[in-house]
């Protein structure tokens, strides 16, 4: 029969192992992400919803309305961008102001992410001659990190409080 101390220490072991793994994973990430990990998770959740919105719009325009895929993707990108801005400004970066300037900066970051995605796809497909899917998988890892960092330090940068004399 175990005493209370032995049971307590053996029950704490899985928690210690979990914490060790979490610390190792966080150490792999840039400090701006590891120090803001829960904001990064929120950003990721919103990104998944935004991706579903863009893809759903694309399929709706093409399959239901017999529209052009480029038009559907463009409409989807705009809807996703507006949704993601609204959701991130209220949930992920809620300490920052909401303004047309922040929306413009957010749009610039999103477009930079789109261009980076296209460059990665071009590199994998046209330069290296590899399957484009490898490029997209790479983009799925790199682009959210890139966009989160730029949004955190630039687009949604919390403005210091103004001193009133």
UniProtKB/TrEMBL annotation:
Organism classification: Bacteria, Bacillati, Bacillota, Bacilli, Bacillales
Keywords: Membrane, Transmembrane, Transmembrane helix
Membrane topology, from the record: Multi-pass membrane protein
Family listed: Belongs to the GtrA family.
Keyword Transmembrane attached: yes
Pfam families: GtrA_DPMS_TM
InterPro entries reported for this sequence: GtrA_CellWall_Glycosyl (IPR051401), GtrA_DPMS_TM (IPR007267)
Subcellular location: Membrane
Species the sequence originates in: Saccharibacillus kuerlensis
Protein's name in the database: GtrA/DPMS transmembrane domain-containing protein
Main location: membrane
GtrA/DPMS transmembrane domain mapped to chain residues: 42-156
Residue stretches spanning the membrane: 40-62, 74-91, 103-124, 130-150
């Amino acid at each position: 029969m175990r005493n209370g101390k032995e049971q307590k220490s053996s029950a704490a072991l899985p928690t210690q192992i979990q914490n060790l793994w979490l610390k190792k994973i966080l150490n792999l990430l840039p400090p701006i992400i590891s120090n803001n990990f829960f904001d990064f998770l929120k950003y990721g959740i919103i990104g998944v919803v935004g991706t579903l919105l863009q893809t759903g719009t694309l399929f709706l325009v093409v399959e239901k309305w017999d529209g052009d895929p480029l038009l559907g993707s463009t409409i989807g990108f705009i809807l996703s961008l507006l949704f993601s801005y609204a959701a991130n400004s209220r949930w992920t970066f809620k300490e920052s102001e909401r303004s047309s300037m922040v929306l413009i900066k957010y749009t610039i970051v999103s477009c930079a992410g789109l261009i980076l995605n296209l460059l990665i796809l071009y590199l994998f497909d046209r330069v290296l001659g590899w399957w484009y899917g490898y490029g997209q998988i790479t983009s799925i890892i790199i682009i959210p990190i890139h966009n989160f960092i730029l949004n955190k330090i630039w687009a949604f940068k919390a403005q210091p409080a103004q001193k009133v004399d």
